[in-house]
Write a structure and sequence with these properties.
homotetramer; 9-stranded mixed beta sheet; 2 domains; 12 helices; alpha/beta; Dihydrodipicolinate Reductase, domain 2; 5-stranded parallel beta sheet; Rossmann fold
Chain lengths: 383, 383, 383, 383
Amino acid sequence: MKQKIRMGMVGGGIGAFIGGVHRIAAAIDGEIDLVCGAFSSDPDKSRASGAELGLSPDRCYGTYEEMIRREKRLRPDRRMQVVSIVTPNHVHFGPAKMALQNGFHVICDKPLAFSLKEALALEKIVEKSGLLFALTHNYTGYPMVKQARQMIRHGELGAIRKVVVEYPQGWLSTRIEASGQKQASWRTDPTKSGIAGAMGDIGTHAENLAEYITGLQISELCADISTFVPGRALDDDGNVLLRFNNGAKGVLHASQIAAGEENDLNIRVYGEKGGLAWRQMEPNTLVVKWLDQPTQLLRTGVGNLYPEALAAARIPGGHPEGYLEAFANIYKNFAHCVRAHAEGRTPDPVYTDFPSVADGVRGMRFIEKVISSGKSKQKWVKM
Amino acid sequence: MKQKIRMGMVGGGIGAFIGGVHRIAAAIDGEIDLVCGAFSSDPDKSRASGAELGLSPDRCYGTYEEMIRREKRLRPDRRMQVVSIVTPNHVHFGPAKMALQNGFHVICDKPLAFSLKEALALEKIVEKSGLLFALTHNYTGYPMVKQARQMIRHGELGAIRKVVVEYPQGWLSTRIEASGQKQASWRTDPTKSGIAGAMGDIGTHAENLAEYITGLQISELCADISTFVPGRALDDDGNVLLRFNNGAKGVLHASQIAAGEENDLNIRVYGEKGGLAWRQMEPNTLVVKWLDQPTQLLRTGVGNLYPEALAAARIPGGHPEGYLEAFANIYKNFAHCVRAHAEGRTPDPVYTDFPSVADGVRGMRFIEKVISSGKSKQKWVKM
Amino acid sequence: MKQKIRMGMVGGGIGAFIGGVHRIAAAIDGEIDLVCGAFSSDPDKSRASGAELGLSPDRCYGTYEEMIRREKRLRPDRRMQVVSIVTPNHVHFGPAKMALQNGFHVICDKPLAFSLKEALALEKIVEKSGLLFALTHNYTGYPMVKQARQMIRHGELGAIRKVVVEYPQGWLSTRIEASGQKQASWRTDPTKSGIAGAMGDIGTHAENLAEYITGLQISELCADISTFVPGRALDDDGNVLLRFNNGAKGVLHASQIAAGEENDLNIRVYGEKGGLAWRQMEPNTLVVKWLDQPTQLLRTGVGNLYPEALAAARIPGGHPEGYLEAFANIYKNFAHCVRAHAEGRTPDPVYTDFPSVADGVRGMRFIEKVISSGKSKQKWVKM
Amino acid sequence: MKQKIRMGMVGGGIGAFIGGVHRIAAAIDGEIDLVCGAFSSDPDKSRASGAELGLSPDRCYGTYEEMIRREKRLRPDRRMQVVSIVTPNHVHFGPAKMALQNGFHVICDKPLAFSLKEALALEKIVEKSGLLFALTHNYTGYPMVKQARQMIRHGELGAIRKVVVEYPQGWLSTRIEASGQKQASWRTDPTKSGIAGAMGDIGTHAENLAEYITGLQISELCADISTFVPGRALDDDGNVLLRFNNGAKGVLHASQIAAGEENDLNIRVYGEKGGLAWRQMEPNTLVVKWLDQPTQLLRTGVGNLYPEALAAARIPGGHPEGYLEAFANIYKNFAHCVRAHAEGRTPDPVYTDFPSVADGVRGMRFIEKVISSGKSKQKWVKM
């Protein structure tokens, strides 16, 4: 009888958005049990949240420190194995560090930390711990994103020349943070988000997606960073020229004032032989364009896909999978590796693909460089 | 501390398709625990399937009869409350009847039964039992399908004049059942599927969707039913003219030989004032057309939707939800009602919407009439 | 120095819709000169219309009879060679007959005539005349429609099994003919349209498109024909089951009360090996689906197309061509053949493709059968 | 009897691409007659081209100088009124200057000239002449582009904040100019194109479209300009950050090595209240997004459009118009103004909208600045 991975959660109390997403993502594949949590910095709220989730009161903690200390004392076959961190950016580093230093694997929401400095420190802690660390750059969990990555890795498009990655949203077109909207409030608050607003919240997703799919690294960038909404403390829009380490060029733009846009992360990549296009809002199709052949619509259900893509789909083609399933793929692969770790096995390479602490450091470096470029009169800033 | 609903499952052993879908659907919202199962008619396979799912061996049963008998003897706060039936059509009636007669609520895959006769008998058993019965016509679980239904109910389109509902698939374009493909084999076998192939498997979904969205009933139909693949025992294609009880006309066609199509269930409805269009493969958009105004794209994230639609979405607009989430909405509403039933409460009307045994009887009647019309020289057959 | 083909026009005076379309279609390729016309049954209006078009007053006639008689007397190198007939249905037969009997080629708007009887008579007149006759079933002029036809002809999809052809419009959702709207008035008037409304106006386009693309013929049909708008004399909606001469099955539905639809003629064809889909409103893409390969988007600009398709495109891929260009392709091919006829040459086979009087007879037979089926209690009516 | 505008053409001999487009554009609306031409610098080829077009040999000239001199001597009611210039960039200035100085209106292909210097000189000549000058930035001829412009002008989107304009093509992904492909050859040749390749050929269209739709002007830009194909003398790709004169920000990127792309010019504009999106390859739809209302699909056939948009559509909604019709709208409005000029009338303001010599100067300035920015280490270059 297979044992589920036991997970504790930091943050994600009643009314939070991303905590609920993490819980669904962890639940979908039946590999992980949520067994405890410090769901809120308010102990009563933490307990109420846990009760709502069906957790016994003795495993609903008032602080993450308490959770980690008390879980550590439980029997090995009862205590949590993994800590999931779903707090705002300024509360990533503390629980991650403590969890790792107490022997718990960590899965953490993005961006990795409050600052590049924290991120680099965390990277060392992960390395030293020998434990597993996953960052939920969830968009890399989509089957068609994995297919895109494999196609490029296998040279199907030839050398990559151009990348266009966009992340337009419109929900911060007005100053909704002023009216106390919870999601908006911490994201526009420099004491919680760090130095960046839109660039940290969604710009890093775009950066991560571009590097993940192409297998390239951004080597230089030139940014124009703006705050359009009066009174807002952090950026809500950014346009960035990119240069990659193989000579490819690119454009990244992300916005939270693109009025009327929902969550339209999308990417196009062009190589010598062909190009591809993918949109998060219609994620089950990968458009592949060729110099001399008709455009193809790749889908999980028809034609041969790479094993990494197929392993990320749960149901036959034509049955759309979405955001939660992609998010769950991060958890599924992480759980696979945690299990292998626990059993001293080498994990199946098809399931080792999840964003790492190194990806998180890249993201924090991107944030630092893009904000600094935005303030610079110099054209190119090196990554 | 909230208790989860305890569920047992009939069918859905390793290698099955729809059983896994039901389990994910039940898991997503954290309302239901799978506690036992009779996953296969082969007891060893049932136990192996249960172990894989993390169930203790003493609650993995060899037959549904054994499951129902033994669970009934467990303490009320331990034994299953709900039986989920995910077997082929010919094994719906038996477990459903026995579960209901032993005090368990039932959630059952579609079509309701092997024949209309069985369906009518089951309807009576449900009524007599006072228990809850849900049929997983899962496509009605999509938020935008619920929105469509409410718009029509509230008269936004005026009186309905025309309905076009389609369900093209291509996966049975060749005789894959001859090579032992499991999903194809039972669906093309009259001893397991009943009198219909495509019309039962997917035609009923189309019929159900049309009646659900419009709130109308098909009153007469005229069908041309075909088997295109040589050697196949049941229909793999059907074209049907429809007449509705309010005078509206329509077309329903479903096919499993529509080469290259995945799972393209879709519907268009036209009223006096406007029309709407919805496609299962891009389920998060509802296209609404007007006589004198620009076409609108309704989405969960932008603009006002009816409460029934909003309650069926878990995440903000632009984060696509798919087949599994829609399926989970049937389970979510069913779980809500089971909980209310257990607590003697009236359920929240927003969560009472799931397909009933009466919908299942409609579906079985549709199967019987459409197959009989296909053989008839008479134009119209009454429903 | 190349001479243009000289054309006279019957109908199409100021305020008409389809006359202007014919004139643009004739002008686009610089092959045809409009030299005279009987643009209206009102001689003053005819002359005013001609003046607006830059025609000299002596070649603006009060009646088609006058035009044919007087043009015939002109010098051979001056008089019109071709008569274009763009009047309502009840004024097709008269001018077509007289033109042919006086040695003029004819290009005529569809449907061919007021009744099947007229159509059959006209077919004989055409045959006897040895002259050219084209019917402007303009949708067959699209490059991608020609590509679809050639793909099927060359067996790329295997034997055809299923055809779905639709022609939804919404502009007659209310009784606009009552307010004198010119286009609506004659189309809903049995004395001008004949026995059919929507079925004649757009149903025939759907029938023609299905037969053109598949190369098959409808052998039987079963129709449900409706008039939804109170007070209207002719049908405004029809749903039809089709059987083809090779055993394929199909559905045709056309409507002028599909509220909010513009002019969404579209077709899907499924064969043993693959399927294709085309939509008039996005005419430059042909979607081709395969059993085992990704869906392809065929476009004039990328990949190999059949010569008949390439010859029908004027500009490179990505520069959209539309309704007028497709319409012009009928005129272009017709002009090519008229020129070859005049010079005693065999025309280039790539340019001989335009709808013929035989296609027109098929259309009129379809109208008669579909209306009669709509009134019949018998299921199948033979074509 | 209405007289057509008489036009002569410079360039556009047999085998040219854009010359044929201009001729169709001039012919569609029946307002313009091509009466003469200097179709090629080779007099024999010029005459052969003219003959093919049905022109009499005495009006097929060997050079544009000859054409202008000899036409000038013809009777006023016979000689050309307008010169259409469709040669490569380095042969725009000469014929334009001479035509204007001899009393002929000019319509000229874009970009305006070979260099900014030439452009500025030409602007003065136009002003001095008192004659009409149109530049065929044809994409501004689309009805939905005009609608977008009017919506912004009337404040429907509020103050504009962000503009994204793209022009990806893939046809120069390999060095086809080396094999003598005529269109590629002159476009990649600095002696014919000027200092820019892709930026001049298509970048200017993007710049023009952005300024036309928004009514704003680019005030600063920062460009990364590349030549990806080895051996090519001019740029084939460029990514540009934009700043507008009202404080809006933007991105412009254009490419001829975006493998697999056809001609996908597209633009998105975001204001305080809403956003809009338009794509040249599906030009008949304007997507309009709102902060609080469902996305709308604006089309010529449904709902109220601005008069400028309606006047640019020839046929009812649902009958797609394309590239040629948009191009023809430039000619149609130009012809309207030429006629008014000839008759001493004020033209109808709805038909005065065509790109001017000032737009051409903007385009040439853009080319100069974008190429210079590409070479600069300084971040921002002022327009």
